[in-house]
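Could someone model NDP with this protein?
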Amino acid sequence: MTDRYAVIGNPIAHSKSPFIHGSFAQATGQDIEYSAIEGPPQKFAATVDAFRAAGGKGLNITAPFKLDAFAYATQLSPAAELAGAANAMKFEGDRVLAENFDGVGLVHDVVHNLGHSLRGKRVLLLGAGGAARGALLPFLAQVPAELVIANRTVEKALELARIGESRGQVRGCGYDALLGERFDMVFNATSASLRAELPAVPAGVFSSAMLAYELAYGKGLTPFLRLAQGAGVQHLADGVGMLAEQAAEAFAWWRGVRPDTAAVIEKLTIPLA
Ligand code: NDP
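Reply:
Sure, complex below.
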């Protein structure tokens, strides 16, 4: 029997996950069906119950249900636990395993697809929401010289830095504290770009940066990427590779085979112009 998987979110029509997982299944010869479910607000658990009752094996979870998925799970991975949110679930009888692959997907994209090592680098992470939380441990596992987390609500950056301090060199701050600082890589994990806004990051942070990475994808040159470009950063990237890599991690978790992501990334890439 064909195993069933899906992505659940609201809205969901824009989701690239059915295309991505369909491509992975074809390329790896896995017999799966992958659909998109528009979850009614406040009805996450009932919708997932119904999917499982119909034989569903696993789900990807996107906004606004990542916290609901976290609460629904019976077993959390360390990444899901730290992020306080889940973006993938696997159903095994009564057990609901939850994962969060956003952070490992991001690191995989940066290191393997874009060719930038984080080891020994000064890394700036803007934002302290779900995506930044997911990136914290995977970033520190790469042993940067220092990871600085800056956020509009400073307390959230300080809290994230506290969580990470036993695992590496990490500091939290507000945007003002970045004046006069320089970094090798700057990541925008704020949601400002979704509204064409710019976090209050001083342009000087880019003055010796080799990479500016926008976690949002498909938005072209966002205000963040424009600022980086104007400051002379050579390598600009958006989150399309992260999206494909977190999907590949979920696919491997479910099916035991990690698909190659290059073809999917090429198809989904919108030029940064
Ligand atoms: P959250 O809602 O969890 O967090 C939002 C963050 O953005 C907070 O730190 C918030 O600061 C900050 N923020 C929002 N607006 C502004 C602003 N105008 N100026 C400064 N800071 C701002 O969002 P997520 O963490 O889930 O998502 C963040 C980004 O990552 C989005 O662009 C999303 O599309 C992208 N993403 C990409 C993925 C991929 O696969 N490529 C996967 C997941 C996310 P404060 O705390 O002060 O409110």
